[in-house]
Amino acid sequence: MNRWHSDYHSPHRALSFEVTRSLYTEKSEYQEIEILETPEFGKVMLLDGVLMVTEKDEFVYHEMLAHPALFTHPKPARVLIIGGGDCGTLSRVLMHKGVDKLVQVELDEMVTRVSREYFPALTAACEDPLVELIFGDGIKYLRETQAKFDVILIDSTDPVGPAEGLFRRPFFADCKRVLNDDGILCLQSESPWIEDLRPVISEVNRDLHSLFPIVRAYSAAIQTYQAGFWLFQIASLAYDPCDQAVYERITEAGLKCSYYHANLHFSSFVLPAFVEKLLN
Amino acid sequence: MNRWHSDYHSPHRALSFEVTRSLYTEKSEYQEIEILETPEFGKVMLLDGVLMVTEKDEFVYHEMLAHPALFTHPKPARVLIIGGGDCGTLSRVLMHKGVDKLVQVELDEMVTRVSREYFPALTAACEDPLVELIFGDGIKYLRETQAKFDVILIDSTDPVGPAEGLFRRPFFADCKRVLNDDGILCLQSESPWIEDLRPVISEVNRDLHSLFPIVRAYSAAIQTYQAGFWLFQIASLAYDPCDQAVYERITEAGLKCSYYHANLHFSSFVLPAFVEKLLN
Questions:
Q1: Cβ A259–B270 below 8 Å, yes or no?
Q2: Which residues form the domain of A28?
Q3: pTM, full prediction
């Protein structure tokens, strides 16, 4: 009998999955990092017991965090990722031809080191000379940097512990300061099915509205995250993600994706009635 | 410590949830029926250990099975439901004003009897004089009936055991025979995330295409079904679910739904790239 792991999505529910073997376990300065081999999802990485990335469905989250914002901006040249240690988001950003600088600020160097070993398909893109990897506190980086960006992507863990500040207004205000005048911020925004996360979704939406003229939420079916249904929020200073020009850009680029495509870009911004209620 | 129940979505994964207490367990002629009280989902019904309906999120499945087909047809007067013993689908069909006859053919009378006791909000609609409840084999009913319908909804369990025939071409051909010349068939069509279900989705789609001029698939985020992401397929003899006239009908009707709305009707037909690949 193989071991099973339970990833708790609330105190009362979990995604349980079979584990063929444990490939790696180590405590970093910030968290416990585990790599498991599973029949259902291939190799998976857990941070403090929570499923972060799987070989089988990483494409959904990473495509859906990177592409909508990158295509909403007509010329995204300078991109900043906060978090994103497994480099799946980074690899998708580099598919956009106009990008000439990508800075990633990940708190935990060990996450990237372990990903290099177990998810080389994701981390290969780190070798690109356009990429600058910084290991440190993203909140501090945004408070202090004099650099400017066209797009900022927040690729964070859940809003507990070190990632909590990434869901707060002062952080969003720093993002705005660091964005160019027509910049775009996009953040992963948790699952609306989980009762405890609903206030976070609403507050983030309210805070973004207080800072940015254009705020839109969109969803994706991510089977390995809480309740299989995930939100993202885009806050934009000039461009509307639902503008027809975005459609043209997506089709012209002709990226081969496993989840994202031009029509899906637009449909993902149409949310179920109960989710619309959470947003302003 | 409360008991936890695991609903297996494949041999290698499960949705596990806490159970406060067991309210009912009985073996019917066809299956084991259980009603459990849970902190996460309220009251839930399991058939042979598989989560079928929950107080908390039943609205997604039932709204999304009933409304898209009912609004695609301009005048759905006669509706047939195969399965649907918990009566959640039936209750949504009756929200459509033009309906003047609703026949439901459920195999297992005990499912409806138990639902009346534990999900009275769903079964209340059974008392409507337009409703005729038949308990028996839906496949046999469709082979033999001389009645005609505008819309047929297949509200079935997974394609194993008694429900297997509901996913097969001869059954779809019988549905076509029983439909009026401009009739619509809609069926729940499983989760594209589950490896073993992918061939079923593809075959159903191919079989429907061989019988109906218009076939379209759509999705919904159903957190308590396999992998949280569910497909439905509509096969139509005359009306296209993505026609603009459908939008007008939805907004005119002004139903108060918790998941479904006019824009979502259309966005739900836009599927991720990996799902489009499964369909012809």
A1: no
A2: 3-54
A3: 0.97
